[in-house]
C-alpha cells in the first residue's frame, strides 16, 4: 500500500481491490440506463465503462454495485437480492460496494438524471433495472457455457452459481473470462414471481456481519496517511457571521496544527478529534449578529397562527367547502402545532477530503451525489468528473445527509482548501453541532374545520397549513413547487383519501426566516398524518361512530388504504375489550392509516395512562402494503424502526429557539426514546403482486396519531401539539 492509499477495511472494498487486480480475467457487465447508447461487444473488464451493476471475478465472487447509500435501511441487501435472484447466484458469493458519483450511469430513475438516495426510492426505482443486470449476466454465462459444451443454451440450468448440463458443470468464475468476450444482450426475459428463490425470502443482510464485527467502514472509521481532523465553531444564531477571532489559545493546545476562517465559521485543525475540540473550546470568536435571526419559537408560532386565520394558496379544492361549512349546524375545529425537529442520526455529519493539484477526492456516506459533486467542483474550479466521491456506510441520515445545497460537504472542502496543506482532512460535526447548527424539519401550524351531516359523516373539510418551504430556492423548486405550493408541505393533506364531498386545502409559506430546514424522515407526512388522522378520529367520536368503521365508510375509492386498516384492526383485536390497567390506570386503543411514498400503512396502538398523566405505549400493531416484498425481514425492521423514530419525536422531540438560538444541544435535552419506552411491535405484510414501493419512511407517519387517538380513547382528551404533554392527560 503506497502512502497515498487510504486504509479501507470494508470487506466489499477488499473484494473490489481483488476484482481490480483480476480485471484482465474477470467479467464486468455494462447495464445501460434507458436512453443510453446501445451496448457493444464486451471485451476485457478494463475496457468497460464504469456504469456496471454486476462484476464477476474468476474466483466466482459476484460484486453488486449499489447506486444507493447503505445507511441502515437495507439498501445493499435489497439491491443485491434483485441481482442475485435473476443471476441465480449463491447468496454467499455475493458482495456489495457503493457506486461512484456518476449520474449518467447511476441516476435514480425516480429522480430523472439525478444521482441520489431519498424518498424511499432505492428498491422501487431499481426493481427492474437491477434484475435486468442480473439476468443479462446470467444470459452471457449461459451462452459461454453453451459455446464451450456445444449444447443449446436452453438446455443449461443455473443454480447457486453453478451452470449444469448433464454431467457437465462450471462455476461463474470458470466461465467469467469467456463470457466477457460475448456481446451484452439488448433485452432479457425476467423471472416470473412464482420462480423466485430469494425475492420475498428472509435472506441474511449483507451489512450485518461487518457491522457486528467492526469491519464496516463508516466515515468516522476512515484513516488516511497524514490525515488531520477539523471541527468548526459555528455561529450561535442563524445568519450571524465571524466579525473577528483570536486563535492564540487554540493554537497553544497540544495537537492543534492550524486555525482557519471559512464562510460558516472558524475551523480548528488538529491531529485528532479531541485535540480539535479542545482547540475550538479555547477559541475566542466575536460574532457579527447584525443580520442574525433573533425570534423565538413562540414568536414564530404566533405569526403562523395569525396567518392561518386568513385564506392561503389553494393546494387542492373539490366541491364548495366554504358553503358546506357555512351551511352546517355542526362544525368542528382544531388547531395543531408541530415544532422544529433535528435529524439526530447516530453518526453526526462528517466527510474526508483530499485535494490534489488537479482533482479532489472525498469519502463519506454520500446521499446526494448530484448536488455534492458539482458544488465541490464549482468551489475548486474543477470539472465535475475530477471530483471523486467514495460512498461509505452512513450511520443514519433521516434526510440530513441528503443536503439540498451540499452544506456540510462544502464546509469540509472549504476547510481543506483554506488549510493550504495537501494533507487529507476529516471534518467532524459533534452532536452539539448537529443540534445547534444543522438543518431541521420545519415547524408547522395546522388549522382544520369540518362540517357534519345528519348522519354524522363529513360534508365539508377545510385544512390550512402554515410552515416554511423546504424546496424554495433550491434546485428542486422548479420540479416540486407549482403556483407557489411546495408539494412536500402539503403531501398527505392535499391528497387526503377520504371521500368528503367538499374539500379545500390551503397553504401559507411565510417569508424565509433564516432557520435552515430540510426533509426529515417522511417529510410532510410527519405533520399532515397527525392532524388529519386525529381530526378524522375526533369526527368519528363526535358522530358516535366506531373510528375504524367511520374511516372505512369514507375509503370506498381507496381499497389499499381500507385493506391495511382492516388488517391492522383485525390483528389488534379491535372491538375487543383491553385488559384492565394496574391500580385503576386508564387504557385505550387508537388507530391511524396513511399513505406515503406509494406505501400504505395502518397502525393500532395500545396505551396505559396513569392518574398523573404519565403513560406508556404498550403495543403497536402495523399493517403494511408496500407491493411485492423483496425481503420481509428488512420490511419489518424498517417499520419497527419507524415506530421507534416516530415515538421519539412524539414523546420528546422538539427543537426550540430563544432569541434565535437553538436551546437543545445533545441527547440529554433532545432525547431519543429509551428501551423501556419502546412498545411491542407487530408487523403484518399484505401479500401483493404490485411493484415494490417505499418502505424506509412510511412506518413513521401513522404512529403519533395512532397513539394520540389511543390516549383520547383512554382519557377523552385530544392532544393538539407535539411532543405530547403529560399534564394534559391528568385524571
From TrEMBL:
Pfam families: MoCoBD_1, MoCoBD_2. InterPro entries: Ald_Oxase/Xan_DH_a/b, AldOxase/xan_DH_MoCoBD1, AldOxase/xan_DH_MoCoBD2, AldOxase/xan_DH_Mopterin-bd_sf, N-heterocyclic_Hydroxylase, OxRdtase_Mopterin-bd_su_IorB, TAT_signal. PROSITE patterns: TAT. Keywords: Signal. One of its GO terms (molecular function) is oxidoreductase activity. Residues 1-38 form the signal peptide. Gene3D superfamilies: Aldehyde oxidase/xanthine dehydrogenase, a/b hammerhead (3.90.1170.50), Aldehyde oxidase/xanthine dehydrogenase, molybdopterin binding domain (3.30.365.10). Residues 213-291 form the Aldehyde oxidase/xanthine dehydrogenase a/b hammerhead domain. This is Molybdopterin-dependent oxidoreductase. It comes from Duganella vulcania.
Amino acid at each position: 500500500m503506497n502512502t497515498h492509499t487510504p486504509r479501507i477495511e470494508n470487506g466489499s472494498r477488499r473484494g473490489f481491490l481483488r476484482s481490480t487486480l483480476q480485471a484482465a480475467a474477470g467479467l464486468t457487465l455494462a447495464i445501460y440506463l434507458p436512453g443510453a447508447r446501445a451496448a457493444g461487444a464486451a471485451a476485457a473488464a478494463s475496457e468497460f465503462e464504469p456504469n456496471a451493476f454486476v462484476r464477476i471475478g474468476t474466483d466466482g465472487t459476484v460484486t453488486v454495485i449499489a447506486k444507493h447509500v447503505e445507511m441502515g435501511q437495507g439498501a445493499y441487501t435489497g439491491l443485491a437480492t434483485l441481482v442475485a435472484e435473476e443471476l441465480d447466484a449463491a447468496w454467499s458469493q455475493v458482495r456489495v460496494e457503493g457506486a461512484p458519483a456518476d449520474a449518467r450511469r447511476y441516476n435514480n430513475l425516480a429522480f430523472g438524471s439525478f444521482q441520489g438516495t431519498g424518498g424511499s426510492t432505492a428498491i422501487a426505482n431499481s426493481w427492474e433495472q437491477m434484475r435486468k443486470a442480473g439476468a443479462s449476466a446470467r444470459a452471457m454465462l449461459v451462452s459461454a457455457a453453451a459455446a464451450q459444451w456445444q449444447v443449446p443454451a436452453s438446455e443449461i440450468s443455473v443454480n447457486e452459481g453453478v451452470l449444469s448440463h448433464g454431467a457437465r458443470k462450471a462455476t461463474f468464475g470458470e466461465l467469467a473470462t469467456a463470457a466477457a468476450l460475448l456481446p451484452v444482450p439488448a433485452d432479457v426475459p425476467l423471472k416470473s414471481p412464482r420462480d423466485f428463490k430469494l425475492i420475498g425470502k428472509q435472506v441474511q443482510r449483507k451489512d450485518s456481519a461487518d457491522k457486528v464485527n467492526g469491519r464496516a467502514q463508516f466515515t468516522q472509521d476512515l484513516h488516511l496517511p497524514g490525515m488531520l481532523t477539523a471541527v468548526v465553531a459555528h455561529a450561535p444564531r442563524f445568519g450571524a457571521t465571524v466579525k473577528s477571532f483570536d486563535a492564540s489559545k487554540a493554537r497553544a493546545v497540544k495537537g492543534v496544527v492550524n486555525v482557519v476562517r471559512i464562510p460558516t465559521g472558524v475551523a480548528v485543525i488538529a491531529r485528532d478529534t479531541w485535540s480539535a475540540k479542545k482547540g475550538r473550546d479555547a477559541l475566542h470568536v466575536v460574532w457579527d449578529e447584525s443580520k442574525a435571526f433573533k425570534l423565538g419559537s413562540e414568536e414564530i408560532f404566533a405569526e403562523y397562527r395569525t396567518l392561518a386565520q386568513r385564506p392561503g394558496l389553494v393546494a387542492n379544492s373539490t366541491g364548495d367547502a366554504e358553503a358546506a361549512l357555512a351551511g352546517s349546524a355542526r362544525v368542528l375545529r382544531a388547531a395543531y402545532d408541530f415544532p422544529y425537529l433535528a435529524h439526530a442520526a447516530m453518526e453526526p455529519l462528517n466527510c474526508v477530503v483530499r485535494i490534489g493539484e488537479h482533482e479532489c477526492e472525498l469519502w463519506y456516506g454520500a446521499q446526494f451525489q448530484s448536488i455534492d459533486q458539482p458544488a465541490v467542483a464549482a468551489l475548486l474550479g474543477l470539472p465535475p468528473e475530477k471530483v471523486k466521491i467514495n460512498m461509505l456506510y452512513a450511520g443514519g441520515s433521516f434526510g440530513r445527509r441528503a443536503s439540498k445545497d451540499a452544506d456540510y460537504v462544502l464546509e469540509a472542502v472549504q476547510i481543506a482548501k483554506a488549510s493550504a496543506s495537501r494533507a487529507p482532512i476529516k471534518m467532524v460535526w459533534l452532536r452539539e453541532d448537529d443540534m445547534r447548527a444543522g438543518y431541521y424539519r420545519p415547524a408547522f401550524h395546522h388549522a382544520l374545520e369540518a362540517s357534519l351531516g345528519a348522519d354524522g359523516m363529513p360534508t365539508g373539510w377545510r385544512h390550512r397549513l402554515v410552515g416554511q418551504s423546504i424546496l424554495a430556492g433550491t434546485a428542486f423548486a422548479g420540479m416540486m413547487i407549482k403556483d407557489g405550493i411546495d408539494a412536500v408541505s402539503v403531501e398527505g393533506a392535499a391528497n387526503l383519501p377520504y371521500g368528503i364531498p367538499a374539500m379545500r386545502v390551503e397553504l401559507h409559506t411565510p417569508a424565509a426566516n433564516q432557520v435552515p430546514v430540510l426533509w426529515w424522515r417522511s417529510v410532510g407526512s410527519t405533520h399532515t398524518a397527525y392532524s388529519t388522522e386525529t381530526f378524522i378520529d375526533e369526527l368519528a367520536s363526535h358522530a358516535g361512530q366506531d373510528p375504524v368503521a367511520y374511516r372505512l365508510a369514507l375509503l370506498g375509492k381507496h381499497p389499499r388504504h381500507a385493506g391495511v386498516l382492516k388488517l391492522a384492526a383485525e390483528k389488534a383485536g379491535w372491538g375487543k375489550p383491553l385488559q384492565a390497567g394496574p391500580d385503576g390506570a386508564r387504557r385505550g386503543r387508537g388507530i391511524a392509516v396513511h399513505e406515503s411514498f406509494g406505501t400504505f400503512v395502518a397502525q393500532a396502538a395500545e396505551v396505559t395512562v396513569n392518574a398523573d398523566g404519565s403513560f406508556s405505549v404498550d403495543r403497536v400493531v402495523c399493517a403494511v402494503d408496500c407491493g411485492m416484498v423483496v425481503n420481509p425481514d428488512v420490511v419489518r425492521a424498517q417499520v419497527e424502526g419507524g415506530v421507534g423514530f416516530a415515538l421519539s419525536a412524539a414523546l420528546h422531540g422538539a427543537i426550540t429557539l430563544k432569541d434565535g438560538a437553538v436551546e437543545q444541544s445533545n441527547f440529554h435535552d433532545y432525547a431519543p426514546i429509551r428501551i423501556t419506552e419502546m412498545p411491542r411491535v407487530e408487523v403484518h405484510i399484505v401479500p401483493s403482486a404490485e411493484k415494490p414501493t417505499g418502505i424506509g419512511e412510511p412506518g413513521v407517519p401513522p404512529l403519533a396519531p395512532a397513539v394520540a387517538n389511543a390516549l383520547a380513547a383512554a382519557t377523552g382528551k385530544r392532544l393538539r401539539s407535539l411532543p405530547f404533554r403529560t399534564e394534559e392527560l391528568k385524571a
